[in-house]
């Protein structure tokens, strides 16, 4: 066991844990989109930023292993501002149709945008619109909602045993999809619907 300080509260956690796991053990809530305790770490969304003592910049708590006597702060002005900026980028190409969205009230992105986002945006570019692709009869894709958290990619690789889904391009042009037209045939493919933070994989259809 190693001791660390979270918001001036001294706690003991197991050696080898990450900061986000230590915060959960201490009952401190940290927002996240890409992190899931059953999947390997990606660090894509950057929503779980925390302030580390003697560090000039906030760091992603999901990929940050803690060291003895580390001091973590989750509720400072620097953390709140960083999370607000991250949310602004995540909403850059996301359709702002929450009042008529079929997932209204059940969307993690909507909830965290309300809790951690800003009431205005600084970007006025044309939103990127992606066409839906056919992944099979069980899953309907709504790719214009995707925030590229890669939960579906990691789940399909780790649980389904298939690398058929991946990411292409970089930065704001990143997309989730298949490198060539194919059908998702893994027995556990329906699980990505439950994992998706924006429910862009939508609905399960009966065969």
**How many structural units, i.e. domains?**
2
Quote the CATH topology of the largest domain.
Answer: Alpha-Beta Plaits
- Helix content bin: 10-25%
CATH class identity of the largest domain: Alpha Beta
Q: DSSP helix count?
A: 5
Distance between the termini: 50 Å
Report the strand count.
7
**Rg:** 18 Å
H/E element sequence: EEHEEEHHHEEH
Q: In the CATH hierarchy, what is the architecture of the largest domain at level 2? A: 2-Layer Sandwich
Low-pLDDT segments: 200-207
Biggest beta-sheet profile: 5 strands, mixed
Structural class: alpha+beta
* Average of the residue pLDDT scores: 84
Lateral strand order in the biggest sheet: 2-1-5-3-4
Q: Could you please describe the fold and organization of this structure?
A:
The chain has 207 residues and is an alpha+beta fold. The chain has 2 domains: 2-73, Ubiquitin-like (UB roll) (Roll), CATH 3.10.20; 125-202, Alpha-Beta Plaits, CATH 3.30.70.20. It contains 5 helices and 7 strands; from the N terminus they run E-E-H-E-E-E-H-H-H-E-E-H. It has helices spanning 19-25, 77-90, 108-116, 151-158, 191-195; strands at 2-6, 9-13, 49-52, 59-60, 71-73, 165-168, 175-178. The strands form 2 sheets. It has a 5-stranded mixed β-sheet, with helices on both faces. A two-stranded antiparallel ribbon has the order 6-7. Strand 6 and strand 7 (175-178) form a beta hairpin. The radius of gyration is 18 Å and the shape is globular. It starts with a strand and ends in a 12-residue tail after the last helix.
């Amino acid at each position: 066991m190693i001791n660390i300080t979270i918001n001036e509260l001294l706690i003991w956690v197991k050696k080898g844990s990450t900061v986000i796991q230590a915060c959960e053990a201490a009952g401190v809530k940290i927002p996240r989109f890409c992190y899931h305790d059953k999947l390997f770490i990606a660090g894509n969304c950057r929503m779980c930023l925390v302030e580390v003592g003697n560090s000039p910049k906030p760091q992603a708590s999901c990929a940050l292993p803690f060291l003895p006597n580390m001091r973590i702060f989750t509720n400072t002005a620097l953390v709140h501002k960083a999370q607000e900026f991250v949310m602004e980028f995540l909403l850059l190409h996301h359709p702002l149709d929450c009042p008529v969205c079929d997932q209204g009230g059940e969307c993690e992105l909507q909830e965290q945008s309300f809790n951690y986002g800003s009431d205005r945006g600084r970007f006025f570019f044309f939103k990127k619109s992606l066409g839906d692709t056919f992944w099979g009869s069980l899953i309907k894709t709504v790719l214009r909602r995707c925030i590229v958290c890669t939960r579906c990619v990691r789940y399909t690789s780790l649980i389904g045993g298939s690398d058929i889904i991946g990411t292409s391009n970089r930065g704001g042009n990143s997309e989730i999809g298949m490198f060539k037209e194919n059908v998702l045939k893994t027995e556990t493919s329906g699980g990505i619907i439950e994992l998706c933070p924006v429910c862009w994989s939508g609905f399960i259809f009966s065969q």
